[in-house]
DNA sequence: CAGGCCTACGAAAACGGTTTCGTGTTAATA
DNA sequence: TATTAACACGAAACCGTTTTCGTAGGCCTG
């Protein structure tokens, strides 16, 4: 087992000082050609690589960024992560991921742990619990220490920092307008039980679209499902579809949409003729469902790239003096991908 | 902006030495009750937290583990990651994730970067390219330096380290046997284009099952699809089903299975009556497909937990002396989850 | 009253680097 | 020949901890 070699080893072996070795490896002008060659050859031979931790301590820069997300077994978050990781890596940064599991406490603990020097900045989407509690002190503490923070998708107005979003409300409005264009009369809103930030925005887009046409909002057309993947009971959905004579459904995620499509099909309804569906999140489910699902693509990867870019720029702009920082919110345009669950054209 | 406070600050402020502060915060017997109280109060007031990087340097332990996986937007890998992250976090470790993107070079670069002190050990699944190249020098270099490594799922016999696997071959055999039990005569094997390690094992399980019944292997019943999610051409699959009069298909992943099911349905075949399907990976696709897909659950999360446990145990057992290490390979039993794409009972 | 022993603390080394500054040697210049 | 500048290198500080060891002062004991 050949242990890692350090500057000290090289110095001792070559009978020069540590500083000389350090400079020689950096090709400093100060060092003679002879010495440089000798040192570099030796370093190469023994595969010397500087210790990242020591460099971090010296530079007060870890080249790590912390990503805290509510879930990882989740298509949208993984795509965002993909974007972050790709951009960060290309810029020489590593990514430490923590999953808050939608829990406020875990979010706080992870954040505090990483904030003690482990990362140069944070990218995160708030946990459901945090949004419910409306408690953002852990975020404030971090930003007050001068650690950059970028929030994406699940953001909070109360937190002052850079943000990356999609135009949830507007794209929802467009989606519902599309259904209205096709002559749909009774469009259901299939949403989550307790309003998450984003579901809320999507619901407002749904309302906007109805208002655009001066259509009254019918509370009976709104159904709330528990925010869990499996075990959704089909009975209430079927009852809902029958009772309300629903002819289209706008769903706040793809799982709800696919699930509802199945219920409709079991009822003997034809998709998209009798009933159309639009979902949110362009994951594999949407692509492989039958019929394939018309859905809103959130461009998660792009979102991740932008978040990483914003963060790294903040990290690298030496913000020594306490000039007032100006934070920005970047809005990414979502796109409606039309497939077979709606009438095309 | 209140910067992080250090021992030095506390020492200066309280007019004691740094060592005293350090000891006082650790409640050392050496320090008088008075001083301890004073220091601890001050530290609490200013929210002192030791700097992780300095501690890492001192301890030669980062409490970070590196995870290198081929893909992240992928159900199985995220579930494994979930298990790793959960176990590691509970043990006070953070997880740095790098995505190799199935590329040998990226795998090597990331690994070398992290090996220079950033992590205490690695958990990884080999990239496709690495398996094809059969080049594992980057892994050997790391293990030779005494950095623990655990491989999962996509492993290589050439690498000497701890491993976590599922019984791919055996479960595939069981799955195909189940189809045979149900009287299926022409069972297709739907696999990947260039044999990945795991696909290979699954294929061998398929062969095993046929051999169990002394059934000849019909090469015509094997179809290879490109390892990509989308844009799979339906025509060759349809032609294949028709020509070979396939009455069941064993697919090496769930995407292939769902895609093939759709083709079969479009051909007017009834599932599972006319044709049955079994897939691999129990993701949302399997759960939401129609009909729901009978599939092999790989228990990714459990795999991740075990991998993390193995790694952390290695990391924490001071392996000072160079006693011969004994590595173990842990095999997790996969389970066949029966749903509607096969005949039940 | 000298010697020994606690008590309570500080100095310093160590982890592995980077960087500033000082200095001995040589060669060029006045 | 004395001064000076360039060259090549080393000492030491620093990043923020932990930990070993040394010691000043007080008290007890013989």
Automatic annotation (TrEMBL), chains A, B:
Signal peptide: none annotated. PROSITE patterns: HTH_LACI_2. Pfam families: LacI, Peripla_BP_3. Residues 5-59 form the HTH lacI-type domain. SMART domains: HTH_LACI (SM00354). CDD domains: HTH_LacI, PBP1_LacI_sugar_binding-like. It comes from the Bacteria. This is LacI family transcriptional regulator. The keyword Transcription regulation applies. GO terms for molecular function: DNA-binding transcription factor activity; transcription cis-regulatory region binding. The keyword NAD does not apply. InterPro entries: HTH_LacI (IPR000843), LacI/GalR-like_sensor (IPR046335), Lambda_DNA-bd_dom_sf (IPR010982), Peripla_BP_I (IPR028082). Keywords: DNA-binding, Transcription, Transcription regulation.
